[in-house]
Amino acid sequence: MSLAGRTLLEHSVRRLVDGGRLGAIVAVVPADLADSARPLLESAVGPTAPEVAVVAGGASRADSVRRGLAALPGRVRLVLVHDAARCLVPPELVHRVVVALHSHRAVVPGLPLSDTVKQVDPAGTVVGTPDRSALRLVQTPQGFDRDLLERAHREAGPAAASAGATDDAALVERLGEPVQVIPGDPGAVKITTPGDLEYANWLLTQAAGRPLARRLPPVIPPSHPAQPE
């Protein structure tokens, strides 16, 4: 889909590149779009392009992520998993996730809830009211140590798609490994409905004339050994 003359994929990839020191990008797309996705991907990363690849996705999110992981160069040890539908992710948020990955093996951005949440049974009857102060709306990109993420997918196996795992962090949680939540960003909206697309277009209109990203500090602290992302 297009937003302000560019596909959602292009918007997403450009912002990832602006926010992180990326060594490679893999776009996981429907098989019939693989050929058309490559020139879009190469255009989005620009002249100082990290290594790029396009692979066909699977029947589920988990299948698609596994295929993307398999296509990453062996040198890559830290991985960001991002939804192209979050096409306006602020580069600053990408940067925060990458920085946090040097202290934690699994990192997800999240926002506090402003609405009351009700738990209901199949009939729609309320059975509980969770404390919203302990809840977060999770966004992407989610960051992981590659070995940890690959183990999470390997141990989940084919059942991951049907086991209620709606993101990669859930698979890591099932290993008993900690997942660190860092502050998210309201600008990282997810395009799910036509109304979301209209809202994203409005956000771009409001941001017209302002740079997508300010100058960001180095991702890796001087005392930390360099690692490719």
Structure summarized in a few sentences:
The chain has 229 residues and is α+β, with helices and mostly antiparallel strands.
What does this structure look like?
With 229 residues, the protein is of the alpha+beta class. It has a single domain (2-207), classed as Spore Coat Polysaccharide Biosynthesis Protein SpsA, Chain A. It is 33% helix and 19% strand. The protein has seven helices and eleven strands. It has helices spanning 8-19, 34-45, 61-70, 91-100, 146-156, 168-173, 194-207, and strands at residues 2-3, 6-7, 24-29, 51-56, 78-81, 106-112, 119-120, 126-128, 136-138, 142-145, 180-183. The strands form four sheets. Strands 5, 6, 9, 10 and 11 form a five-stranded mixed beta sheet that branches. The protein has a two-stranded antiparallel sheet with strand order 1-2. Helix 1 (8-19) crosses helix 4. The longest helix has 14 residues, at 194-207. The chain is globular. It starts with a strand and ends in a 22-residue tail after the last helix. 30% of the residues are buried. Mean pLDDT is 87; it is low at 212-229.
